[in-house]
Amino acid sequence: MGEHHELKATLGGRSQRFVITEVAASLRELQVDGIELIQDYPTDAQPPWCSGWVLVPWPNRVAGGAWTYDGDVQQLEITEPELGNALHGLLTRTTYRVSARTADSITLDAGISPQAGYPFELATSVRYQLVQDGLLVTHRLENTGNHAAPVAIGAHPFLRLGTVPTEELTLYINADTHIEVDERLNPSGITTDVDGTKNDFRTGQLVGHVNLDDAWSGVQREADGSSVHYLEAPDGSQVQMFMDASFGYIQAFTTTEFATTGGMVTAVAVEPMTAPADAFNSGEGLRWLEPGDVWEASWGIRYRHA
Question: How far is CA 112 from CA 31, 49, 260, 261, 274, in A?
Answer without folding.
Answer: 31, 23, 32, 34, 19
